[in-house]
Specification:
The chain is an alpha+beta fold and about 280 residues long. It has 2 domains: about 100 residues, Ubiquitin-like (UB roll) (Roll); about 160 residues, 2-Layer Sandwich (Creatine Kinase, Chain A, domain 2), CATH 3.30.590. The protein has 6 helices and 13 strands. The strands form 2 sheets. Strands 7, 8, 9, 10, 11, 12 and 13 form a 7-stranded antiparallel beta sheet that branches. Helix 3 runs antiparallel to helix 5 and helix 3 runs parallel beside helix 6. The protein starts with a helix and ends with a helix. The model has no long low-confidence stretch (mean pLDDT about 95).
């Protein structure tokens, strides 16, 4: 059941929730997650009138300012943040001051396309397997060129030193209502894979963005750096997002296809292509 605006405001206002900061998050055209933090008292205004930000600072967003409108169905508490004075996150729609959804808002474009696909009686479900590397950091916390371990495909401890990091990631994802089905050491040294449960198109893209945020946070907590790959590390296998896509007409048998995306991509933009392809047959 998706939260309504009233549900979110009630949760944030509840003293037992102890939420002190609200992060309004969105994705730029490169796929990077961006956010701004609000005090809880500012959230009602954000729902009603939007939160203004300088869109001109982001490549491809055009000039001037734009407005962030939170999607109440995406409320999630960040489990790695303090348990007292908690931090909650909401993904947002980006609109112009005329109230029209911004053309560079790839999340909203994907949502609209998925809704149209549903009206056509076509169901699209996506299972995601996501790779990432763990590198050691130097005394200043900057990534080095040394992978966290020298493990290989499906290795176990002691060659696989990332098992506890993957466990923490899966635990945090579960607390944020992102289900995982498997995790393991991948082929490259310091390379890991976590498989996310099958969902609809918009949820799959949201989950990828949540996954990237959680991986970065957990790596940092463990004194590590999480990267798709390291510049110059040409001998390491490329990390990717492996998607298994099931498309079916209402009452029909699902047609399966596999597709790989670069780990560093805008998942809303890439999954929008899959939705458009399904709509066009």
């Amino acid at each position: 059941m998706r939260n309504s605006t009233e549900d979110v405001l009630r949760f944030v206002k509840d003293r037992d929730s102890d939420v002190k900061f609200i992060r309004l998050a969105f994705t730029d055209l490169t796929g990077a997650v961006k956010n701004i933090s609000l005090a809880p008292d500012c959230l009602p205004r954000a729902f009603e009138r939007g939160m203004e930000f300088n869109a001109a600072e982001f490549e491809g967003f055009g000039g001037g300012s734009a407005l962030l409108f939170p999607d109440p169905g995406t409320l999630s508490v960040l489990p790695w943040r303090p348990s007292h004075g908690r931090v909650a996150r909401l993904y947002c729609e980006i609109r112009g001051h005329d109230g029209v959804t911004a053309p560079y808002d790839t999340r909203s474009r994907l949502r609209a396309a998925a809704e149209e696909l549903d009206l056509l009686g076509i169901t699209l479900r996506i299972l995601v397997s996501a790779d990432f590397y763990l590198f050691r950091t130097d005394s200043d916390g900057n990534p080095t060129d040394r992978p966290f371990d020298d493990g290989g495909y499906f290795d176990i401890f002691p060659r696989d030193k990332g098992e506890n990091v993957r466990r923490e990631i899966c635990s945090y994802l579960s607390e944020m209502s992102v289900s995982t089905i498997a995790s393991y050491h991948a082929a490259g040294p310091g390379q890991n894979t976590i498989a996310l449960a099958e969902t609809d198109a918009l949820c799959a893209a949201d989950n990828i963005q949540t996954f990237k945020t959680v991986v970065g946070a957990v790596a940092g907590q463990n004194g590590l750096a999480s990267l798709e790959a390291l510049n110059g590390a040409a001998l390491l296998p490329e990390s990717k997002l492996a998607l298994r896509v099931a498309v079916s007409a209402r009452g029909g048998k699902a047609a399966m296809r596999d597709t790989d995306l670069p780990a560093k991509c805008n998942p809303y933009k890439e999954i929008l292509k899959l939705v458009s392809s399904a709509a066009n047959g």
